[in-house]
Amino acid sequence: TRHFVNLESLSTTEINSLIERSLAFKRGEPAPDFSGKTLVNLFFENSTRTRSSFEMAEHRLNMHLLPFETATSSVQKGETLRDTCKTLEAIGADALVIRHGATGYYEELMQTLNIPIINAGDGSGQHPSQSLLDLMTMVETYGTVEGKVVVICGDLQHSRVARSNADILKRLGAIVYGSGPIEWYDPAMGIPYLPMDEAVEQCDILMLLRVQHERHDGTTRFDPAVYHTTHGLTDERMNRLKHSAIVLHPAPVNRGVEIADELVEHPRSRIFEQMKNGVFARMAILEWCFSTKSIKGDDADDNTN
Ligand code: CP
Fold this sequence. Notes:
There is one protein chain. By secondary structure, this protein is an alpha/beta fold. The protein has two domains: 12-126 and 275-290, 3-Layer(aba) Sandwich (Rossmann fold), CATH 3.40.50.1370; 128-271, Aspartate/ornithine carbamoyltransferase (Rossmann fold, 3-Layer(aba) Sandwich). The chain contains ten helices and eight strands. The longest helix is centred in the C-terminal third of the chain and has 20 residues, at 271-290. The chain is globular, with a radius of gyration of 19 Å. The model has no long low-confidence stretch (mean pLDDT 94). The structure holds phosphoric acid mono(formamide)ester.
């Protein structure tokens, strides 16, 4: 069974192949017909982009979607994630797309399920489908990420997007820095720190992160205007970016905080292109999960069972 739970389990060959497939789907390559497959999307945390773009990808692959809403399910009676997923497998689901607040929720499921688990975000852990669409967007712009300077700026400590991206970008040969409030900088991520004013002058790719108020304990006072002036992408900083540089943000965006309102749709912002790319990246992920073709290189942990 092929699970898509993080990118560290995949070889660089597999990741490059997924990026290529995502770009091919965007160019109009015909999608495989998975009309015999039934998918369930289980979102225990809120989502707009990830859920909708997985649904769109599933439609484009002709998959059948079994509706599932946590709010009206027996999760509300205390049924565990494990039993919920076992139930859906017994009913006939061929794969589960899951977003859940528990970091690493998939470890136990991988031992008990014989259908692919696709991680749509686990707590403060990983968001591998977001990383894939981010990589796709960078490769679409530059042809490669090798040698490119990427600055990941913002709420590094709470961000599953940052964690997924820092690891994979380093493996693919990018030069990665962290920026944003020093108290949210996490040295364990293994990326050096750059203040925002230096970062904007050096980067080829500026990846802004959302301030995740829902993951903060509320003990530190947060001033959006101060954050914007100190760490945000202001008009003045935008003018100091390299002319070739691009701006990414996984969204939802706190307009006027991480980025000035008027810059969200700036020509060098790829924010809405990332959302468009998310559909193609998720088509490639679903195709990979159901493929029997081996494209594995030799630099990945094995997450199959
Ligand atoms: N980027 C992202 O994961 O957005 P959603 O939370 O809306 O899915």
